[in-house]
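User: Sequence in, structure out. Go.
Assistant: Echoing your sequence, followed by the structure tokens.
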Amino acid sequence: MLKKRGINVTHGGELMLKVENLHVSAEDREILKGVNLKINPGEFHVVMGPNGSGKSTLALTIAGHPKYRVTAGSIVFENVEITDLPPDERVKLGILLAFQHPHEVEGVRIIEFLQQVLMEIKGIDPVEAYDRIVEVAKDLWFTEEDLKRYVNVGFSGGERKRLELLQAILIEPKLLILDEPDSGVDVDSLSVISRKIEELHQRGTAILLITHYGRILQHLDPSRFRVHVMREGRIVLERGGEFVKEIEERGFQKIFEECGCDE
């Protein structure tokens, strides 16, 4: 292992993300209890599980949310150990998180925020960034006038999620983590969001999608993704995309009972 500008660098193969024996606590409560997950470049992975199983904690921990404390294990991204890196350094490496509940930012206009993001992450000048943002926004149902609104202020659930996708499309991260992109979203917005997720994946972005039910997955090709099922802070099952249908039909508890995962 080498040290490079304070970052631990390991040598390895093609593996993009490696989460190994990850234990995470928040507010003195252990939430993740030994999670293992591997993602190669361009792969599509889905994490499912009942409420409280640790899905969002896993997403937020990979992204570097300060609320969650890693007590054991490691997170390695493209041979760089990022377990202790701050969120902005992880973004620079190519990891982007689309939040389940994006916050309102009063006083900050969408267009100005996105211009700043593109300048800092992609090195694009403000004029070029403006034109690019307006062009891409149209496909996500945002007009040029919409982009003058404050970030998420007065937005519906669908608008908030579409704005998260707009950021992802503009940045084109190596790994996009989507924390319940289908929550609070109407049918029309869900269709657009699903299509844009597929487009990003087809262009080479690896996807880690967190959800507790399969509504959004009905819009996606099950042959393209792999499903990981969580229970009480651990990944207890891993199956192909077709397993989503079985989860929807039978429910998590029945599946846990039959696999012995509830013991």
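User: And one key feature?
Assistant: The CA atoms of residues 109 and 150 lie 4 Å apart.
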